[in-house]
Amino acid sequence: MAENSGTDPAVETNTEENAAASATIIKVTVKTPKDKEEIAIAEDSSVSQFKEEISKRFKANQDQLVLIFAGKILKDGDTLGQHGIKDGLTVHLVIKTAQKTSGGGSSQTSASSGPGPSQGNTDGSANSSPAGNLGTPQGSGPSPTPTQPPNMLAGFGDLSGLANLGMGSANFMELQQQMQRQLMSNPEMLSQIMENPLVQSMMSNPDLMRQMIVANPQMQQLMERNPEISHMLNNPELMRQTMELARNPAMMQEMMRNQDRALSNLESIPGGYNALRRMYTDIQEPMFSAAREQFGNNPFSALGGNADNSGAQPSRTENREPLPNPWGPPDTAATTTSGTATTTSSTTSSTTPSVSNPLGISSSSLGNGMFNSPGMQSLMQQISENPQLMQNMLSAPYMRTMMQSLAQNPDIASQAPTPTPAPTPTPAAGTNTAQQQLMQQMLQMFAGGNASTPTPEVRFQQQLEQLSAMGFINREANLQALIATGGDINAAIERLLGSQPS
Amino acid sequence: MNQHDSTFGVQLFIYDLSRGMARQLSPIMLGKQLDGIWHTSIVVYGEEFFYGGAGISSCPPGGTMLGPPDTVVELGNTEVTEEIFMDYLSSLGETTYSGDKYRLFEHNCNTFTNEVAQFLTGNKIPSYITDLPSEVLSTPFGQVLRPILDSIHIAPPGGNVISSQNNHS
User: Fold this and answer.
1) Phi and psi for A455 in degrees, rounded to 5?
2) Which domain of life does this protein belong to (chain B) (predicted)?
3) Residue from B39, B59, B107, B168 carrying the catalytic annotation
4) Which end of chain A has fewer CB atoms surrounding its CB within 10 Å, N or C?
5) Domains of chain B: which residue ranges?
6) At the topology level of CATH, where does A456-498 sit?
7) Whether pLDDT at B116 is above 60
8) Residue A384 near chain B (CB below 8 Å)
C-alpha cells in the first residue's frame, strides 16, 4: 500500500488526503477564536500532519499552532486517534504570535490571533507591548498587577452597566421627576395613559388608591398635621368622585373651573376673603410645602379637599387670570387661584397648585420616574397594549404590600436595583442592611401572601377600644366602620352614627 | 513548544443574579419555575474570567460585587497553559466577545463560559444555565420584557477587562 502518509512535507497535501486505503478521511472542525474551518484529514494522521493542513488553511506557521481537544494539548507526536478525534468533532486552535508585537498591535502575521501578548519566552517586558495586553506578565506570575490601577477604574465604570439593571438610575426620585417632566411635555402620552383601561380600573378601586396614598410617608405626615385630610381620604364617596374626576380629564377641567369660580365668588362675600385666607394658611400651605418637597414622588397623591368648596384663596383681588394650563410647564404657585377643593390623584393638572389641585401634583407623577429609560418606555407601551398583563401583576396579593413597602422606604427602593451582595461583608454596610430589609420584606410577602396586614381586628384593636369606651357597643359594627374608614375613628363614628340613629 | 504536562483544574462559578427572587417570583411572573437568573464565570489558574458588557474581564475568584458563588461545578482539567489561554482570550475578546457584542439573551456571560469550558476541557456547562434565555423568552412575560432586557448589559463590577486594546499604546 502506497502509504505516503505525508510525513514528508514535500509531498503534496493531496496525497495526504487521498491517503492510503486503510485510513478513512474524517472531517474535523478546527475552531479558532475568530473563525472555524472544516479540515478533511486521514483518521490515523499524526498531529503534525494535521497541523500542516491547518497551517496551510489558516496561513500560519506550524510552530504557531496550538491544538486543543478535550482539554488536552495535541502534541506533534500524537495521533488524532490517540486523542479520540473523530469525524465531526471540533478541535480548538490557538495561533500564537511568535514574536513580540510592534506598533499598534497589528502583527497580523497569522490569520487568527491578533496582537496577543508575546510568548512566555520573553520576560515581563511583554507587558509593555504597545498592542496592549491582558496586564498579565507572561511567563511570570498570573496576577495582573502592573496594569491593575487603570483597570480597576474600568471595573468601577461597570457600575453603570449594573445600574442599567436598575432601570437607569439608582435614584427613584430622580427618575420620577424626569418622567414627570417628560409626561408633562407630552400631554398626549398623558391622556393615553389616562384612557388606558388598566389605569382606569386601577383608579376606580378607591381602596387601592387610598392605600397607595396613605402609604406615602409624606402623605402620612400631612395627615397628622391636618386631620381633615385623613378624613377626606377615608370618605369613600369622595374618593370615588375623585377617581371619576381623575379618569376624565375633561370633567376635571370643568370641575376645576367651577371650583375656581366658586372660590372667587366667595371672595366677594363679606368676610369671605378672610375665611378663605385662613383656610389657605391652615390647610393649603402645609400641603404645598409638603408637596414641594417631594415633588413628583408620590404617584398617587391625593389631597383632602373640602367638598363644599370652601377653599382657601391667597390672592388679594378677584382673580381674573385664566386658569392654569394643565398641560403647560409649571410656574410659581402664587399667581394662581388656589384652593383646596377636590382631591386629585395623579390626574390631569399642571404642577402649579390650582383650585382642584392644591398639591400641585401633576398627573404625570403617575409613578413617573421609573419609566424614564427608553427601555421602560417600550415596556409601558407593551403593557398598555396588554392591560391584562398589568392587571394580573397588580392583582397579585403581594403587589400592594410591595408598593407600600417601597413607598415607605424610598431609600431601600432606590438601592434595590443594585444587587449588592447581602450577606458578604462589603464596605457599604448601610446598603447591606437596607438591602436585607427589603429582601426580608419581600420574602415575608411571598411567604405569607398578604402577610404584612394583620387582621383588621388586631389592627384596629386600639380604635375598637376607644369606640367601645365612647359607648359604641356594637363591636361588629365598629369593626366594619373601622375597616371601611381604614382606622379613622372620627370617620368611623360618623359612619356608625349615620347608620345607627340611636 | 515545551509545554508542561501538568493539568490545571477548571471550575465553573455560578451566581444567581436575582438572589433567590427568581425562585420565588418566577412562577407568578413567568408561569414557570426558574430557580435563578444565572451568571457564570470560569475559574482557572487562580483567576476568574467572565464576559459582560465591558468585554471579557478577570478578577480574583469570587472577587466581583456578587461575592462568592452560589454553586461551583468542577468542569475537569485542562492542559492548556495560562499563556495559551490568554492568547485565546485576547482573540476572543477582539472578535466574538467584545463588550459591544454582549446580548443579554443570545450572547451573554453563559455563552462565553460555555465556549471557554469547551475549549479548556471539552465539556459544556450544565444545560439549565444555557437554556435560561429560551426559557424566559418562551413565556409571554418574557416577550414583553424583552426590549428592555435587550438593552441591559450585565457587568458585575470588580473585574479587570481583558482586551488587547488595553491602555497600553
Assistant:
1) -65, 155
2) Eukaryota
3) B39
4) C
5) 8-161
6) Helicase, Ruva Protein; domain 3 (1.10.8)
7) yes
8) no
Q: For this structure, is B59 an active site residue?
A: no
The answer to whether A42 touches A18, Cβ cutoff 8 Å, is: no
Please state the three-class secondary structure of A230-266 as a single string: HHHHHCHHHHHHHHHHHHCHHHHHHHHHHHHHHHHHH
Rg (CA), chain B: 16
Hunting for cell 499563556 — which residue is that? B83
Locate A406 and state its grid cell. 417601597
Count of alpha carbons within 13 angstroms of residue A254, beta-carbon side:
8
CA-based nearest distance A181→chain B, Å: 21
pTM: 0.40
Determine the residue of chain B that is closest to A386 in CA distance: B144
Contacts of A116 in chain B (CB under 8 A): 86-87, 90-91, 164
C-alpha to C-alpha distances, A164 to A64, A417, B16, B116, B149, nearest whole angstrom: 42, 9, 18, 27, 10
* Count of other CB atoms within 10 angstroms of residue A324: 25
Beta carbons of B162 and A117 less than 8 Å apart: no
Q: Which fold is adopted by the domain B8-161?
A: endopeptidase fold (from Nostoc punctiforme) (3.90.1720)
Convert the pLDDT of each residue in A26-41 to its tens digit.
888 888 877 888 888 8
- Stretches where chain A sits below pLDDT 50 are 1-21, 99-173, 294-316, 330-375, 410-432, 435, 445-453, 502
- Which cell numbers in the block locate residue A208? 387601592
The tens digit of pLDDT for each residue in A424-448 reads 333 333 444 554 555 555 555 444 4
Q: Which residues numbered 107-126 in A keep a CB inside 8 Å of some CB on B?
A: 112-117, 119-120
CA–CA separation, A405 and A217 (whole Å):
11
Query: A25-95, which class in CATH?
Result: alpha beta
Query: Does residue A135 belong to the interface with chain B, where contact is any CB pair within 8 Å?
Result: yes
Distance from C-alpha of A266 to C-alpha of A290, rounded to nearest angstrom: 26
Residue B37 has pLDDT above 50, yes or no: yes
Active site residue B39: yes
Inter-chain contact A129–B168, Cβ cutoff 8 Å? Answer: yes
Which amino acid belongs to residue A349? S
